[in-house]
Amino acid sequence: MARLSGVASALAGAVAMVMLGLSGAASADPGDACVTSYEGAQQAKKQGGLVRSKAELRLCIGACPGELSKDCERWLGEVDQKLARLTVAVRSRGGDPIANDKLFVDGVERPVGQLLELDPGRHELRVEAPGHVRRNDVVDLAAGSRTTRTLTLDPGATGRDETPSLIGPITVGTAGLVALTAAAALAIAGHLDVSDMRDDENGCAPACPEDRVDRVRDLWTAGAVLAGAGGAAVVGASIWLGFELSSQPGGPTPVSGGPRGVLFELGGRF
Predict the structure, then answer these.
(1) Which end of the chain has the least Cβ crowding within 10 Å, N or C?
(2) 90/75 same-domain check
(3) Do 171 and 242 sit in the same domain of this protein?
(4) How many domains does the chain divide into?
(5) What pLDDT is stored for residue 268 in this prediction?
(6) pLDDT score of 258
(7) What local confidence, expressed as pLDDT, does residue 44 receive?
(8) 10 Å Cβ neighbour count for 141?
(9) pLDDT at residue 50 above 90?
(10) Geometric angle at alpha carbon 119, from 113 and 123, rounded to 5°
């Protein structure tokens, strides 16, 4: 019973909060919206943001009384005349419309083939469609102008003009070089130990302890394994890099093969 009472109290509290919120919204001063849109429209206009100024003026007309509303109506006519208008059409190389095409104006997706209201000035356009190469363009619109721009897309892979990802092949190649460096270090360490054993004054050859001989063999074995793995990684990374670069227009021909092998001659006699 206590549990049901707690639930009921929580529900009552939630309902009360909602009612308070609705009451606050209903009692909000409409003059705030008027002042905000009235001042915001003028500020946006001064900064060259005519599209935002037009939106603020529409709010102002509905929110402001009397003379203030008339001011906003007059300014709306002035801003509307200065807005630039652009229509972008997308066509294939043969002049046919393209299905599922997309238009981006200054990085924001906009409808293709429809009249767009924009601020006067420079705007970056990008169009893309499945099975076609993306195209970028720039348009400079004068105040009050009406412009139609037709962009032609060439057939090809959609992402063919993207920068290739080199992180993978570079990472693999770096790992291969590290392995080769470690292999060389192990080989050198083994040969230095052999030189010590062959030293005329302090050397133990040809009757060196078995554990010391085994240690040198272990160094050379580990070095040979690292050399093989590192060489394979370097060759694989070079082939991978070749394919990544060849995916770009004008890129190099894919690597058909790498070096025939990476050989570390590890050995010696005690």
Answers:
(1) N
(2) no
(3) yes
(4) 3
(5) 52
(6) 44
(7) 92
(8) 20
(9) yes
(10) 65
Task: Report residue 173 as tokens.
Answer: 């190649």
The pair of three-digit structure tokens given for residue 87, joined into one six-digit string? 């229509």
At 161, give phi and psi (nearest 5°): -95, 5
Q: In what order do the strands lie in the sheet with 146-153?
A: 116-118, 84-92, 146-153
pLDDT at res. 212: 75
Which residue did the predictor score with more confidence, 137 or 28?
A: 137
Tracing tokens 């009235």 back to the chain, one arrives at 38
In this prediction, residue 129 carries a pLDDT of 94
Q: For residue 180, how many other CB atoms are within 10 A of its CB?
A: 21
| d(C-alpha 176, C-alpha 195), whole Å | 29
Q: For residue 32, which amino acid is it? A: D
DSSP H stretches of helix in 98-209: 167-197
> Does one domain contain both 88 and 77?
no
CA distance to 33, 133, 145, 247, 255, per residue, from 156 (Å): 51, 5, 34, 11, 22
Q: How far is 128 from 124, CA to CA, in rounded Å?
A: 14
